[in-house]
């Protein structure tokens, strides 16, 4: 029957939407970027990182280690506790009209009109993004009169989320796990009050993602000419698809800093990184002729290619007194690089590109550091972080909104070599409309459209961070 060939191609085409989600999900910054890369940064809402000297600022500016007087090391651990509700407003599934004789090869069968109906399922998903625990650390030391070396390890894109199997969002998102590990060796040159630095960003990405596939046909049991046997073969029930992939890729960072007794200034650039993931795809759970036609299968070597954004950081610190320092930082994110996900090596499915259509954004931060005593410093800050997701492109897996970040922190020098840092912050995330259109079985007679119509609300996150620095 013709349906056998269509079933195989249709399931593989539907899997393309799963491959596309390998890089998208709500995290603790705009879109899927995690900015909690040091405890001090959390405590002042990321307002002074690009312009402050020290190993703890290497993620934001490689020039930060220029001119350090000796060995420095830092380690930090951050807990991210998000809360949110994703509620259905009116999501629908549109099944196609199908000529049964043309699909099955059996003459005399009727054409079935297309139908649009509610997706059904649980209408509210609570706390779908899991708690996150993020370690980071690094070290730096001089290797000459004007040259310094450093190394930092971070995780800039990481999250885990779970939607229930009966959720209204099940055709767009089920279980999701993304981990990005960034390793950045740095060289910095300094002379006088000026430092310049650069280094590669070596990133390993590992992802596991899943979602459900809708039954592409309406209930045919009430159509007499179809009969119970053929109806059972044509109605497949919902299926499931699962993807696991990973890959290594390289970008770069560069920046400079200027310091005098009154001000610290810094500018740094972190490149976009084109990621190439190779994955293992499983499609299962489909019944009827889709199952007989080979739709349930495993595909080795599915490829996805996408680009994470560049960022430019501008910032300064003004030493008002010996105790009080004011901080300010602006970041421009090149999210337009994440415009599409290119898919290939999907077996019977043709190569294709899935649009994401993100746009460039800014974040703005202001804060302070105040030395209460020579050993004890307190800090705080506020950040405005804008979402890059435009209207019509927000799906349940990335229900991101612009946010305000309010932070406070402290450092205490145990002795001349060891300092403890602590910080906490609260993110208030704007309620937004979830409105992206999804498709399954694209390019076949079974093409099925899912119109997400939901609402992200009650969204916020608490962040707690603890760290320590060693200097000799």
Distance between the termini: 75 Å
What is the CATH topology classification name? Porin
Per CATH, the architecture is Beta Barrel
Q: Number of domains in the coordinates?
A: 1
| Relative helix content | under 10%
Using the alpha-carbon principal axes, give the shape.
Answer: elongated
Quick check: average pLDDT?
86
Biggest sheet: strand arrangement? 1-7-8-10-11-12-13-16-17-20-21-22-23-27
Unreliable runs? 9-27
What share of the residues does DSSP label as strand, in percent? over 45%
For the sheet with most strands, the description reads: 14 strands, antiparallel, barrel
Q: What is the β-strand count?
A: 27
CATH top-level class: Mainly Beta
Category by helix and strand content: mainly beta
The CATH homologous superfamily name equals: Outer membrane protein transport protein (OMPP1/FadL/TodX)
- The count of helical stretches stands at 5
What is the C-alpha radius of gyration, as a whole number of Å? 26 Å
Please explain how this structure is put together:
The chain is mainly beta. The chain has one domain: Porin, CATH 2.40.160.60. It is built from five helices and 27 strands. It has helices at residues 2-20, 39-43, 100-104, 227-234, 288-292; strands at residues 72-88, 92-95, 98-99, 111-112, 115-118, 124-126, 132-142, 147-154, 159-162, 175-191, 194-213, 239-259, 263-270, 273-284, 297-308, 310-319, 324-334, 340-344, 352-355, 361-371, 376-385, 403-413, 418-429, 432-434, 437-440, 448-451, 454-471. The strands form three sheets. The protein has a 14-stranded antiparallel beta barrel with strand order 1-7-8-10-11-12-13-16-17-20-21-22-23-27. Strands 5-2-26-25 form a four-stranded antiparallel β-sheet. Strands 3-4 form a two-stranded antiparallel sheet. The longest helix has 19 residues, at 2-20.
